[in-house]
Amino acid sequence: MDRFEHLYSEMAKRVKPSDVREILKMMQDPEIISFAGGMPNPDTFPIDAIKEIANRVLEDDPVVTLQYGTTEGYNPLRETIAEYMSSQQVECDIDNVLIMSGATQAIALAAELLVERGKTVLTESPSFLASLICFRNYGAEIIGLTMDDDGVQVDMFEEKLKALRKQGIHPPLFYTIPNFQNPTGVTLSEKRRRRIIDLANEFDFLVFEDDPYGNLRFEGEHIPPIKSFDDSGRVIYASSFSKILSPGLRLGWTVADIELSRKLALLKQTSDVSANVFSQRIANEYMRGGYFDRQLPIIKEIYARKQRRMLSALENYFPKTSRWTRPKGGMFIWVELQKSIDTKQMFPKAIEKKVAYVQGSCFFPDGSGRNTMRLNFTHPADEKIDQGIKRLAELIELEMKSASA
Amino acid sequence: MDRFEHLYSEMAKRVKPSDVREILKMMQDPEIISFAGGMPNPDTFPIDAIKEIANRVLEDDPVVTLQYGTTEGYNPLRETIAEYMSSQQVECDIDNVLIMSGATQAIALAAELLVERGKTVLTESPSFLASLICFRNYGAEIIGLTMDDDGVQVDMFEEKLKALRKQGIHPPLFYTIPNFQNPTGVTLSEKRRRRIIDLANEFDFLVFEDDPYGNLRFEGEHIPPIKSFDDSGRVIYASSFSKILSPGLRLGWTVADIELSRKLALLKQTSDVSANVFSQRIANEYMRGGYFDRQLPIIKEIYARKQRRMLSALENYFPKTSRWTRPKGGMFIWVELQKSIDTKQMFPKAIEKKVAYVQGSCFFPDGSGRNTMRLNFTHPADEKIDQGIKRLAELIELEMKSASA
Fold for domain A5-45+293-404? Predict the structure, then answer.
């Protein structure tokens, strides 16, 4: 079918369009209430601040702003991030910080660093779809680890590592989203964070700590990043400006041991030279000028309100046989329906009813979780949340009836 | 030395810092006159236009500007590029166009698409260092093809392909910079462009046409891109906004057959999701609003002036035993010194004399060309060009004397 298939690399041959993404792309009907995406709400964008800062950096220093930047990132921003991370209990300096063209790039470069055909990668099960796709593209076998309300179950994790060791399998990488996980909303406990470091040391693997949602906490106490317990430099920490500033600016960062940072920078160099310099300067002024400190509470208030609304709609409309998470932050609620419901099969009917979600099974490395779904509460308008959850509940009731008929 | 080496992928193990890049990084002394980089001159940046446009897009449509964009690119910009390419004799529509986070990303994704260990890639010899590094990182064996004043020598190219075929070697990719090539400044003749398409069809390979300098022509007639002669969809054309707008905005594009574009988009998706949306809107308004048409002659005038200045300085100061190219555009002049001079060994002495260039040998896949150097004329200030060339000429005279002593 593809005339040039025989010329492609093994990786390119593996790369296939994802069902879910193709579905999301086609979903252009404005009447559909979508809980499917993972987009921040535009109401959270600090438009005036960005306008003001953009003008200022172009006024004050257009030459640096518009010229090529260094691969490691714009140094004042690296400095800012190093200080910010230190305030999050992650001791680091500028040499540990790389500015990425979004956290997605950090995941891709970590995959390039560690993953290839024949390698096994450990992830939470379920986990972030794009990361699973990325690891698979690079040729990984993915093993998903069971979670509960405190995140990945570390005892079973250790058992798994022992079993793999017996089989001669040595995973180089454990990928985790410790805060308000995508897709479940679950947060990893501090005790388990510490234990993961012990496991990484004992079983000799690196940890990719993907933390785009950590500062979107609506309630409860901040838990220090896994990276803050990392005494052996085995954690690559990554976060993003997409949820606290703007995704369109494509900016994220990593904090890692100096050896790992150097390798990641070399891989980034051939990948895209550097992150957008204009964006980096906007982000730096945003952090330095007090804008971020003012904006973050606004963002959290908007999202907390939307989440409360979704939780109460679920309470009001969803069948009693379903269960869902009540995350203390982030962007997603995870729903488990009764076993007879298959959310993938149900999806076309949901689209007919003008409501969308993501089927849970695509987040499971083994394709299980057929009765689960991920709901995003950050993007839809408040009043749409009630309507959409009601539509979805009606559909589920119908499905349950036809299943028991 | 690297504690985690044993966990790395084969690719990551191959990736090493480049000597040249490390040297360039250390070259912070402001007294050094550098002909080494490949940066556009900040005088060419349309600062006022960018400021005006940035304000306008944030005013008119902040939601789209700051939100996630699609992987293929911002559709109005894809449309603009499709029209622009049609004006360059490349018939295409929006589906053939992908917006990249700089042309470097296009090279990297093409490498990911086609290159892996055991594959052979053909390039001009000499060729662009970053591309050679990229192909090597992906595991390629690189074979360099001899050039003359009309670009790559196509008869020898064909002989090489036949010889490789006999050895059972089937290169999937020929990489070329057809206009004002980096590093030589040489332009590929139209006749040879057509012949390359014939070779690609006959020997079944794809062509990556890297064209960042094509519109920086100071004199002579525009030659249509290889892509314009591509009757079989074998050419991936790539260009960049770095030299006609700003490198800090990190924007480039590809034009390719629909099958190749789809694969490249899938690879881009896991690589960085999408190019910076704010930048894409700025670029689109820049092209649509007549700014580009006004700015391009200004850029060309500045560069033509600097090039004349460098050519006359070379004429005035360089020894009669040296030869150099007189490109009709672009950013570089290529110098061949007498055989006894080794430009790599001479480099530390040049730094002492406060002048810098890039040693030619690093552009040759086989490391030859020890008596050559690349000189960039776009970045240094006009008066520095004379001074720098004079310093360099004095050094070369000294080297010649010590060689003949």
Answer: Aspartate Aminotransferase, domain 1 (3.90.1150)
Quick one: pLDDT at residue A393?
Answer: 98
pLDDT in tens, B35-89: 999 999 999 999 999 999 999 999 999 999 999 999 999 999 999 999 999 999 9
Question: What residues pair up with B173 in beta bridges, in sequence order?
Answer: B121, B206
Give CA–CA dist B65/B69, Å, rounded: 8
Q: What confidence tier does B25 reach under pLDDT thresholds 50, 70, 90?
A: low
Q: How far apart are CA A115 and CA A123, in angstroms?
A: 13
How close B339 comes to chain A (CA, Å)? 32
Q: Which of B67, B104, B114 sits opposite A273 (nearest CB)?
A: B104
Q: How far apart are CA A374 and CA A182, in angstroms?
A: 9
Q: Is B286 helix (H, G, I), strand (E, B) or coil?
A: helix
Q: What does the pLDDT read at residue B18?
A: 79
The answer to whether the beta carbons of residues A393 and A335 sit under 8 Å apart is no
Residue A320, pLDDT score: 96
Q: Kindly list the residues from chain A whose CB atom is less than 8 angstroms away from the CB atom of residue B121.
A: none
Q: How many CB pairs under 8 A join A and B?
A: 232
| Residues of chain A with confidence (pLDDT) below 70 | 21-22, 24-26
Count of CB atoms within 10 A of residue A232's CB?
11
3-state secondary structure of B174: strand
- Domain positions in chain B are 5-46+296-404, 47-291
pLDDT given for residue A20 in this prediction: 73
Pick B247's closest partner by Cβ from A10, A11, A67: A67
DSSP-H helix ranges across B212-290: 258-272, 277-288
Whether residue B203 is predicted with pLDDT greater than 90 in this model: the reply is yes
Q: Is the pLDDT of residue B244 over 70?
A: yes
Contact, B365 vs B123, CB < 8 A? yes
Q: CATH code for B5-46+296-404?
A: 3.90.1150.10
Who among B54, B249, B270 is closest to A133 (CB)?
A: B270
Contact A85/A236 with Cβ under 8 angstroms? no
CATH topology of domain A47-291: Aspartate Aminotransferase; domain 2 (3.40.640)
d(CA A392, CA B300): 60
